[in-house]
Design a protein that fits this description.
mainly alpha, 0% strand
Length: 257
């Protein structure tokens, strides 16, 4: 955790030095706009505005990544008054989201970034979080993303077991169909297979959650597939295990029939 924080700290410091002060507000607005273009929704009216953000003059006063993280925690009293979609938006705009992809272990990266994040912890206490994430994925435009890793992050966030457990079987099937459709669109535009780990993880967890028997049998007979779905420390190396997402997607296409 400390190593990843240090890496991110240096990256954010570099970004700070590279930005002119009079460009800061424009940069922040552009980042939010780019994220909203991907999900194709209006920013919730009760969204949280982080008091500091990379590129702001105040950001240069921080000397450690820990200080940055503390400054970007949404106060609990504010979270209690926010809508579920606004909480998701706060997670969406969290400056440390890119750090989830600092390694191939997506779940490990997610846990390190969000295990102590106030907005994420609040979302896990919302009974409608699964539905809200389903609606957000349903409204996504996978060809509009201008933020690196954005599609993958929404899929990883949605794949957390606590949110999948809030959906009924019809909703889970709808989520699989949406994920497949988005993946097809990205593949038609030439996206490399090594960017399919997140959609494979989401769909694979869903197939396991609904106890789709052919998929469960495959997991029991394929150690790599089982590790990909169940082992949070699993290292996904596209060159070695690039067929796993496609294998999962093949099972999903059979399931939705």
């Amino acid at each position: 955790m400390k190593t990843i924080k240090n890496i991110l700290f240096f990256i954010l410091c570099f970004l700070l030095i590279s930005c002119k002060k009079n460009d800061v507000e424009h940069i922040c607005e552009e980042r939010i706009k780019a994220r909203l273009e991907y999900v194709n929704i209006a920013r919730p009216a009760d969204s949280y505005n982080y008091p500091v953000y990379p590129g702001m003059p105040e950001w240069s006063e921080f000397t450690t990544a820990e200080e940055m993280i503390v400054a970007c925690q949404v106060p609990e009293n504010i979270l209690n008054e926010m809508s579920t979609q606004a909480i998701i938006q706060a997670i969406w705009e969290y400056p440390f989201v890119p750090d989830v992809f600092a390694r191939y272990q997506y779940q490990v990266g997610f846990d390190e970034v969000f295990s102590e994040n106030s907005a994420y912890n609040a979302l896990t206490n919302r009974n409608d979080a699964g539905i809200a994430l389903l609606e957000r994925l349903k409204s996504t435009n996978p060809l509009m993303s201008r933020v690196d890793g954005e599609p993958k992050f929404l899929e990883i966030l949605t794949s957390q077991g606590i949110f999948l457990s809030q959906l009924n079987e019809i909703q889970k099937k709808a989520l699989i169909e949406i994920a497949l459709e988005n993946d097809n669109l990205r593949q038609d535009c030439g996206e490399a297979n090594n960017n399919r780990a997140s959609v494979g993880l989401l769909i694979g967890k869903l197939l396991k959650n609904v106890a789709y028997e052919p998929f469960i049998d495959a997991m029991n007979n394929n150690e790599q597939l089982k590790s990909f779905i169940e082992d949070t420390d699993y290292i996904y190396i596209p060159e070695g295990y690039g067929n796993i997402p496609q294998l999962i997607i093949d099972f999903a296409n059979e399931y939705i029939k």
